[in-house]
Write a structure and sequence with these properties.
Oligomer: single chain
Distance between the termini: 12 Å
Largest sheet: 7 strands, parallel
Structural class: alpha/beta
CATH architecture of the largest domain: 3-Layer(aba) Sandwich
Shape: globular
Number of helices: 15
CATH class of the largest domain: Alpha Beta
Number of domains: 2
Bound molecules: uridine-diphosphate-N-acetylglucosamine, uridine-5'-diphosphate
Order of helices and strands: EHEHEHEHEHEHEHEHEHEHEHEHEHHH
Number of strands: 13
Low-confidence stretches: none
C-alpha cells in the first residue's frame, strides 16, 4: 500500500473541539490517512468534556492552560510546544480550526516548519482588527499561511478572495452542524438538574468575549435583570464560562436575582438540549450563532459586529449590541410580538447540511492525488 498521508489536527478550546471532533472521527475512518490528534489544552475542563463526549483520546496533550492566562505566554507556549511535536511526527498536513490563539499560533508553527496547512472554518471576517479581539487577527494569519481553506459559506470564500488569495478555497459548510446533528441524534441529555420551571419561558444567555469584559458585560447583566423584573413569565439560564473575568463581573449583579439561574458550563449534549428548549437565546458566542438557527431558536447577538452575517440576512439572528436599553427593547419585542417571533424562528440555517466533514475529507484526498 502507498504511504499514508499523516494529518495532524490541532485544537485547544471548547468550540474548536466541538467543531473538530467530528472531523477527527471522519478522517480516522479513511484507511489512506494516519490521523494524529494534538490538543494544546488552552482550555482544560471545557475541552475534556467534549473529548469525552466524542470518545476521543488525544495522541498529544500539551496541557498548556494556566489560571487567568495571558496572550503572550499562551502564544509562546503553543509555538514552542507544537514545534516539538511537528518535528517529531513530521505530518504532511496540519489542520487547525477557527480563530483562537491555538489556531493562530499552531498554524504559524506549522508554517515555520514548512508543513502544509488546512484551515477549518476559514474566511470569517469583520474587517476590524479590534473586534473581535484577538480573533480577527488570528483568522487573517491562519488564512494567510493556509494551503487549503474550508469555508462555511459563499461569503467566507469571497472574503478570502478579496485578500488576493485565489487557490485552495472551498465551500464546505460548517462542521458545527455535523457536530450538532450527531449529538442531537446520538446523545441523550437530562436537564432536570437545572431545576427549570416548565411553566415559564426559558431565555438562554451566554457571554464570554474579551471585548465585552467590563462595562459591556455589566450592561448585559443589568438588561437581564430588568427583563426578568418586567416579565414574570420568563426564566433566564446563564451557563457561566470558566474565565474569571466573566464570573467576577456577572456574579455580583445576577447571583441573587429571582428567576435567573447562574450555572456551571454545560457539557455539549445538555447544552444542545437547552438551546432546543429555549424560547430565545442571547449570546456573544460564535458557535451558538450558528447552531441556534439550525434549531429554529431566535438569537439576539450581544455584540456590535459579527463575522457571521449570513443568519442575520436569513432572519434567524439579530445584532443587538451591548446597550442595555436596546437589549431590553429588542428582547421585549420578541416576547410580545408573535409575528416577529415566528419570522425569526422559521428562518433557514445558512451554515451547512451536516456533511462538511465528508466534503473536507474528499478535498484532502484530491489535494494529495489519492
Ligand atoms: C478562548 C478564545 C476565544 C473563544 C473562547 C471559547 C482566544 C484568545 N480566546 O477565550 O476566541 O471564543 O476560548 O470559549 O483564543 N478556564 C478554565 N477552564 C477551562 C477554560 C478556561 O479554568 O476549561 C479559565 C482559565 O482561567 C483560563 C481562562 O479561563 O486562563 C481564559 O481562557 P482562554 O482560553 O485564554 O480565554 P477564553 O476567554 O476562554
Ligand atoms: N457550549 C457548551 N456549553 C455551554 C456553552 C456553550 O457546550 O455551557 C457550546 C456551544 O453549543 C457552542 C460552543 O460551546 O458549540 C461555543 O463555545 P464558546 O461560546 O465558548 O466559544 P465561541 O463559539 O464564541 O468561540
Amino acid at each position: 500500500m502507498d504511504k499514508k498521508i499523516k494529518i495532524a489536527l490541532v485544537f485547544g478550546t471548547r468550540p474548536e473541539a466541538i467543531k473538530m471532533c467530528p472531523l477527527v472521527k471522519k478522517l480516522k475512518e479513511n484507511p489512506k490517512f494516519e490521523v494524529l490528534t494534538i490538543v494544546t489544552g488552552q482550555h482544560r475542563q471545557m475541552l475534556d468534556s467534549v473529548l469525552e463526549l466524542f470518545d476521543i483520546v488525544p495522541d498529544y496533550d500539551l496541557n498548556l492552560m494556566k489560571p487567568n492566562q495571558n496572550l503572550w505566554n499562551l502564544s509562546s507556549d503553543i509555538l514552542l510546544e507544537t514545534k516539538k511535536v511537528f518535528e517529531k511526527e513530521k505530518p504532511d498536513l496540519v489542520l487547525v480550526h477557527g480563530d483562537t490563539t491555538t489556531a493562530g499560533l499552531s498554524a504559524l508553527s506549522a508554517f515555520y516548519g514548512r508543513i502544509k496547512i488546512g484551515h477549518v472554518e476559514a474566511g470569517l471576517r469583520t474587517f476590524d482588527k479590534d473586534y473581535p479581539f484577538p480573533e480577527e487577527l488570528n483568522r487573517v494569519i491562519v488564512d494567510a499561511v493556509s494551503d487549503l481553506m474550508f469555508c462555511p459559506t459563499d461569503r467566507a470564500c469571497e472574503n478570502i478572495k478579496q485578500s488576493g488569495i485565489t487557490k485552495g478555497i472551498y465551500k464546505t459548510g460548517n462542521t458545527v452542524i455535523d457536530a450538532l446533528l450527531y449529538v442531537v441524534e446520538n446523545k441523550k441529555a437530562d436537564l432536570d438538574f437545572i431545576g427549570l420551571n416548565p411553566n415559564l419561558k426559558t431565555i438562554l444567555l451566554t457571554s464570554h468575549r474579551r471585548e465585552n469584559f467590563g462595562e459591556p458585560l455589566k450592561n448585559i447583566c443589568y438588561a437581564i435583570k430588568e427583563l426578568v423584573e418586567k416579565n414574570k413569565d420568563i426564566q433566564v439560564v446563564y451557563p457561566l464560562h470558566l474565565n474569571p473575568n466573566v464570573r467576577n463581573t456577572v456574579k455580583p449583579i445576577l447571583e441573587n436575582v429571582e428567576r435567573v439561574k447562574l450555572i456551571e458550563p454545560l457539557d455539549y449534549a445538555p447544552f444542545c438540549s437547552l438551546m432546543k428548549k429555549s424560547h430565545i437565546i442571547l449570546t456573544d458566542s460564535g458557535g451558538v450563532q450558528e447552531e441556534a438557527p439550525a434549531l429554529g431558536v431566535p438569537v439576539l447577538v450581544l455584540r456590535d459586529e459579527t463575522e457571521r452575517p449570513e443568519a442575520i440576512q436569513y432572519g434567524g439572528v439579530k445584532l443587538v449590541g451591548v446597550n442595555k436599553e436596546k437589549i431590553v427593547k429588542t428582547a421585549q419585542e420578541l416576547l410580545d410580538n408573535k409575528d416577529v417571533y415566528e419570522n425569526m424562528s422559521k428562518a433557514i440555517n445558512p451554515y451547512g447540511d451536516g456533511k462538511a466533514c465528508n466534503y473536507i475529507e474528499k478535498i484532502i484526498e484530491e489535494y494529495f492525488n489519492m
